[in-house]
Amino acid sequence: MPATAKPAAREAAPRAPNDLQPYWMPFTANRQFKAHPRLLVAAQGLHYTSIDGRQVLDGTAGLWCCNAGHAHPRIVAAIQAQAAEMDYAPAFQMGHPKAFELAARVAALAPGDLDHVFFTNSGSEAVDTALKIAIAYHRMRGEGTRTRLIGRERGYHGVGFGGMSVGGIANNRKFFGPLLSGVDHLPHTYDRAKQAFSRGEPEWGAHLADELERIVALHDASTIAAVIVEPVACSTGVLVPPKGYLRRLREICSKHGILLIFDEVITGFGRLGTNFAVDYFGVMPDLVTAAKGITSGTVPMGAVIVRKGIYDTFMTGPDYAIELFHGYTYSGHPLACAAGLAALEVYAEEGLFEKVRALAPYWEEAAHSLKGLPHVIDIRNIGLIAAIELEPIAGQAGKRAFDAFLSAYQQGLLIRTTGDIIALSPPFTVGKREVDEIFGRLAAVLKETR
Ligand SMILES: Cc1ncc(COP(=O)(O)O)c(C=O)c1O
Predict the structure, then answer these.
(1) Average pLDDT over every residue of 47-58
(2) CATH 3.90.1150.10 fits 5-68+351-448, yes or no
(3) C-alpha–C-alpha distance, residues 58 and 413, integer Å
């Protein structure tokens, strides 16, 4: 863009305050949106209010994050009080009590010796932080050749260069050059012919973890730092791991001295009815990334939870020296910490994770009741997550589900789509009545979707 373009723009007529053009929206069809805006102006409990005054049932907890429901009074009050008491404290060489308190609370929720927490501001930053810690950890131990990272096809680990590189979604990668070098990918775990309409973990597919042995043989274990996977690959359309798959990955990583990272940005903080997916599957990784639910989506925050041995490996050298040259201005931001502490209290006091566990069988039945509706070629579920996959329109991939999304929104239901897959993940405060409402409305939409 030539430097001369700017003055001309400045002389242009002033824009109306509600001009939609200047905002370049993320992961959005900007032109379609600006021609037909969908603006939300308020949120309370399980509902958004649209700008035209309609109530919209939140079938997606915002973006898989508002687990405690919207505008929970306890969380709102905590954020307000913190903003008035102390807006910000420097994150480097200084601290504030709530960051330590929240780290201790998160560590207490995490199983085993996953007991040190590094704060970030998003899932993407958590992933890039975890990858950096993994590589630096090996170097600290004198195995500096271990720099390769192994991700998985159809994985989503955010949009930083690290996360994109280990991620496996072509559109998120192909525009952005060669990405990180020294990255390889496991195959994804989905095969519709073998798994369609599975309830929970599919029976078929554990053997796909053995592909890691092939990758290790190709590169040699001495060059590999870490494997990163989402225990449940959510953003790519809810790919539930086959029974035994994650355990097998763990075994192979341990055998070859490779760190295993579980990206729990969505599954962390109760989405499966347990604190973490680690607990659900009973498989212990070395690092866990989290975000979203840590503050119930109210203030941006992410976290990397690491096992004690990893933290301890860095705690060497003179005690005045910085041990890890990494961090963000807003790591452990006071507002985020206040929101996080309040969210964890709400989860515990209202028994929201137990509620997810209790509701999961009803949720599963309701989701699978859509089998047989037009265009439905698969339904998958686990915890309080479900996906309904539609047959794509020939030559127009993604259009059928996008049309269903627009129609659902008009009918007062917020769903999320990725390609031709509809994903559902409501706040944990839903009851059976709202579950019926979600699937009832979605069934009506699907019956009319062409
Ligand atoms: C598994 C996983 N990792 C990372 C991210 C990126 O998180 P953020 O959008 O907060 O950067 C997401 C977001 O959906 C995610 O699902």
Answers:
(1) 97
(2) yes
(3) 6
Ligand 1 contacts (CB < 6 A) are 122-124, 127, 156-158, 230, 234-235, 263, 265-266, 291
DSSP letter, residue 263: E
Percent above pLDDT 70 for the chain: 96
- Say yes or no to pLDDT of 12 above 80: no
Q: 391: which residues sit within 8 A by CB, 6+ positions away? A: 375, 376, 377, 400, 420
| Domain ranges across the chain | 5-68+351-448, 76-349
pLDDT in the model for residue 272: 98
What is the per-residue pLDDT across 414-429, written as a single tens digit (0 to 9) for each? 999 999 999 999 999 9
Å from CA of 157 to ligand 1 middle: 6
What single-letter amino acid sits at 262?
A: F
pLDDT category of residue 98 using cuts at 50, 70 and 90: very high
Measured from the Cα of 267, ligand 1's closest atom is: 1
Centre of ligand 1 to C-alpha 13, Å, is 39
Q: Give backbone dihedrals phi and psi of 420, rounded to 5 degrees, phi first.
A: -105, 25
* Residue 446 alpha carbon to ligand 1 centre in Å: 28
Kindly indicate the confidence band of residue 260, based on its pLDDT and cuts at 50, 70 and 90: very high
- pLDDT digits 0-9 by tens, 300-325: 999 999 999 999 999 999 999 999 99
pLDDT of residue 18: 77
Nearest CA to ligand 1 atom 3: 157
d(CA 117, CA 111): 13
Matching residue, tokens 């010796």: 113
pLDDT digits 0-9 by tens, 111-120: 999 999 999 9
Tell which atom from ligand 1 comes closest to the C-alpha of 235.
16
d(CA 3, CA 48): 42
| Residue 5 in this model has a pLDDT that exceeds 80 | no
Tokens describing residue 62: 């915002």
CA-nearest residue, atom 7 of ligand 1: 123
Cα three-residue angle 362-368-372, rounded to 5 degrees: 150
Helix (H) or strand (E) holding 436: helix 432-448
Q: How confident is the model at residue 376 (pLDDT cuts 50, 70, 90)?
A: very high
Query: What CATH number does the domain located at 76-349 have?
Result: 3.40.640.10
- Cα of 149 to ligand 1 centre, how many Å? 18
How many angstroms does the Cα of residue 6 sit away from the middle of ligand 1? Answer: 34
The residue to which tokens 């009851």 are assigned:
431
- In whole angstroms, give the CA distance from residue 354 to residue 432: 15
Spell out where 68-195 has E strands. Answer: 114-120, 148-152, 183-186
